C-alpha cells in the first residue's frame, strides 16, 4: 500500500481548486447532470422503502433490465448467473482481479492505460506487463503487439475499448485476432467497456465477448457512470462465466455487502427511461471532439490522433517539451487550464497530455485558445519524419 502513488488526476484537481478562473479538462466525468427523471424515480423508490441491503449479486429487477440491455446493445446471450451489480466499474475491477489472480500471475495491460489498473492488479498480488500501443497506429491494440509482450506467466489480457486516455476503439477485425490469440494461449480477457455507449461517427460498440468461444473466457466490465452521467451514484456491473461471477459476488459481498440500494433503483430508471438522453449527450461530445481535434491539429509542435470514443484526447507535445509534468504545472499557473500529464498512463504517454472534453463548447474554445497561446510561447523542435504523422485520423472501421 505504501508503494501506491496518489492519483495524479486528483492531485491536479486539488491544485486547481486553489486558483480562480480555471478551466478544467482534468477529471474524467461528464459535466452533464444525471437526468431529472432518473433522480425522481430513485427518490420515489427510496421513499417507498428501497433503503435496505440489496442481494449481493444485485437488485433482481436491475439484473433483469441489464440482461435485456446487454442482449440488445452487445448481441450477447445473458443468463441471470452471468451478471452481477457492482459499486461502479471500480467495484467490478476490485472483484475481478482478487478473484482470478494468484500471487505472481501476470496481466497484459495495453498502454497508455487507465492508471488505476496497476493498483487493482498489484493489490491482488498480480504483476502488470505492459503492451505498448503506438501513436502512428492511432493507439489501436493489435494481436501482434500482444504476442510481442507475452510471457510464460501471463494469465489475463486486459482490454479497454473505447480507451481512456486515447479514445481509441478496437475495430472488429482486431478483436477477431485478439480473440484467436486468447483462445490459443488460454488467456482470460478482462474487457473494461465503461465507455461502450460513448462512441462517435455512427460506429457501434463491439465486445470481444461476442466472438466464438469468448463468452466463456471474458469478464466484461460496465458502468452507469459515464453513459448516464451517474459517477456519484457508484453503480457498475460485470458480465462473465457463471463460475467466476459467483466467486466475484463473494468477494464483492465481503468488501461492500452490495451496491447502494437507491443507486440500483436509479440504474433501473436509467435503463428504462434514460437511453434517449444518452444519444443527445453523445452528439454533444462528438461536437466537442471535433472542436478539440481541429484546434490541437493547428498548434505547431502538437501531434494528435482523433478519438473514436470516450471523451478524452491525448495530444503528443514531445516537440515542445521533454517534461510533461512541468508543462502541465506551467500551463495551470500561466493560463489556468487543467490537463493531466501522460506519465501515469504508461511509458507511451511520457510525451503526451490527457484532456477531457467535459466542458461545453464556449469554454472548450477558450481552453484551446489559452493552450495555443501557451504552446506558442515555447520553442519547438520538430522530430525527424513527424510531419507525415502529425495528424492521424481514425481511418479504420
Ligand atoms: N474504467 C475506466 C477506463 C475508467 O476511465 C473509469 C473511470 O474513470 C472506470 C473504469 C471506473 O469508473 P466507475 O467506477 O465510475 O464506473
Structure, described:
There is one protein chain. With 397 residues, the protein is of the alpha/beta class. The chain has twelve helices and 14 strands. A seven-stranded mixed β-sheet has the order 2-8-7-6-5-3-4, sandwiched between helices. Strands 10-13-12 form a three-stranded antiparallel β-sheet. Helix 3 (60-74) runs parallel beside helix 9, helix 4 packs parallel to helix 5 and helix 10 (275-297) runs parallel beside helix 12 (361-376). It is globular, with a radius of gyration of 21 Å. 50% of the residues are buried. Mean pLDDT is 93; it is low at 386-397. Residues 28, 88-90, 114, 160, 164, 192, 194, 223, 225, 231, 236 line the site of pyridoxal-5'-phosphate.
Question: How do the strands and helices of this protein lay out in sequence?
Answer:
Blueprint (H helix, E strand, L loop, with lengths): L7 H10 L5 E2 L11 H12 L12 H15 L8 E4 L1 H13 L5 E6 L4 H8 L3 E6 L10 H7 L4 E7 L11 H13 L3 E5 L25 E6 L12 E4 L2 H15 L4 H13 L1 H23 L6 E2 L6 E2 L10 H12 L1 E2 L1 E2 L11 E4 L4 H16 L14 E2 L5
Parallel strand pairs: 1-11, 3-4, 3-5, 5-6, 6-7, 9-14
Antiparallel strand pairs: 2-8, 7-8, 10-13, 12-13
Helix pairs in contact: 2-9, 3-9, 4-5, 4-8, 10-12
Amino acid at each position: 500500500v505504501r508503494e501506491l502513488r496518489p492519483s495524479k488526476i486528483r492531485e491536479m484537481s486539488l491544485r486547481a481548486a486553489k486558483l480562480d478562473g480555471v478551466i478544467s479538462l482534468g477529471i474524467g466525468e461528464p459535466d452533464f447532470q444525471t437526468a431529472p427523471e432518473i433522480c425522481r424515480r430513485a427518490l420515489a423508490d427510496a421513499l417507498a422503502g428501497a433503503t435496505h441491503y440489496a442481494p449481493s449479486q444485485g437488485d433482481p429487477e436491475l439484473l433483469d433490465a441489464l440482461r435485456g440491455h446487454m442482449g440488445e446493445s452487445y448481441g450477447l446471450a445473458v443468463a441471470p448467473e452471468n451478471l452481477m451489480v457492482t459499486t461502479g466499474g471500480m467495484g467490478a475491477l476490485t472483484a475481478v482481479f482478487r478473484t482470478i489472480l494468484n500471487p505472481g500471475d501476470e496481466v497484459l495491460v495495453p498502454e497508455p492505460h487507465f492508471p488505476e489498473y496497476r493498483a487493482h492488479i498489484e493489490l491482488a498480488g498480480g504483476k502488470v506487463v505492459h503492451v505498448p500501443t503506438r501513436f502512428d497506429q492511432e493507439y489501436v491494440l493489435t494481436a501482434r503487439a500482444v504476442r510481442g509482450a507475452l510471457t510464460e506467466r501471463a494469465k489475463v489480457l486486459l482490454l479497454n475499448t473505447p480507451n481512456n486516455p486515447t479514445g481509441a476503439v478496437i475495430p472488429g477485425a482486431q478483436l477477431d485476432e485478439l480473440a484467436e490469440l486468447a483462445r490459443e494461449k488460454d488467456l482470460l480477457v478482462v474487457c473494461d467497456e465503461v465507455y461502450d455507449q460513448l462512441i462517435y461517427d455512427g460506429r457501434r460498440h463491439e465486445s470481444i465477448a461476442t466472438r466464438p468461444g469468448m463468452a466463456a473466457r471474458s469478464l466484461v466490465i460496465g458502468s452507469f457512470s459515464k453513459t448516464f452521467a451517474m459517477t456519484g451514484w457508484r453503480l457498475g456491473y460485470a458480465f462473465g462465466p457463471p463460475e467466476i461471477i459467483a466467486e466475484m459476488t463473494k468477494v464483492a459481498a465481503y468488501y461492500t455487502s452490495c451496491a447502494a440500494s437507491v443507486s440500483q433503483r436509479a440504474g433501473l430508471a436509467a435503463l428504462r427511461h434514460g437511453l434517449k438522453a444518452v444519444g443527445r449527450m453523445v452528439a454533444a461530445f462528438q461536437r466537442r471532439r471535433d472542436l478539440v481535434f481541429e484546434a490541437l491539429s493547428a498548434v505547431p509542435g502538437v501531434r494528435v490522433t482523433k478519438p473514436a470514443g470516450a471523451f478524452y484526447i491525448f495530444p503528443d507535445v514531445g516537440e515542445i517539451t521533454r517534461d510533461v509534468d512541468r508543462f502541465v504545472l506551467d500551463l495551470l499557473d500561466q493560463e489556468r487550464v487543467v490537463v493531466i500529464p501522460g506519465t501515469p498512463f504508461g511509458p507511451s504517454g511520457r510525451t503526451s497530455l490527457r484532456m477531457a472534453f467535459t466542458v461545453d463548447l464556449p469554454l472548450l474554445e477558450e481552453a484551446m485558445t489559452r493552450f495555443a497561446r501557451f504552446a506558442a510561447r515555447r520553442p519547438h523542435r520538430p522530430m525527424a519524419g513527424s510531419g507525415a504523422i502529425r495528424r492521424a485520423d481514425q481511418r479504420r472501421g
